[in-house]
Design a protein that fits this description.
Layout: H1 9-32, H2 40-59, H3 61-69, H4 74-96, H5 104-139
Helix pairs in contact: 1-5, 2-4, 4-5
């Protein structure tokens, strides 16, 4: 019987944070130079996906609570929550305020949205991996 306490979560969490920073910086540069401009549809989709993931996260509270009690996935769940709330907040800001395509402040917010969205998606993958290992080892 293999015991696992999600030791890979630190590596996975580090990779999630690193990917979010890289994607955020690239998105801000691309937006500022107007190579690719992100449209309102992207902001609406990012908002909708974040709200959907928030609903799923709230529905899975009992399962995640068991994993938290075993101290196995706490940091991953915090990263997921930060990514979801950051995506919702920055997409609302971008939808509420119209920025010019090459605006510096607009590029910063687009970079933040891309970073939070990437953090949300990658940390969800880490959390699923961690909870899956926890559930598999709990049955044995």
């Amino acid at each position: 019987m293999r015991q696992s306490n999600c030791n890979t979560r630190v590596d996975c969490s580090f990779l999630s944070i690193a990917a979010a920073i890289i994607v955020g910086v690239v998105a801000a540069i691309v937006q500022f130079t107007a190579i690719v401009t992100f449209t309102t549809v992207f902001y609406i989709v990012a908002f909708g996906v974040a709200v959907l993931f928030l609903a799923i996260l709230l529905a899975l509270v009992p399962v995640l609570y068991r994993a938290l009690c075993q101290n196995s996935c706490g940091f991953n769940i915090k990263l997921v929550t930060a990514g979801i709330l950051g995506s919702i907040a920055t997409s609302i800001i971008l939808l509420a305020v119209g920025f010019a395509a090459t605006s510096g402040l607009g590029a910063v917010f687009v970079g933040l949205l891309a970073a939070f969205f990437t953090l949300m998606v990658t940390s969800i993958a880490c959390t699923i991996n961690c909870v899956g290992e926890f559930s598999f080892n709990d049955e044995n």
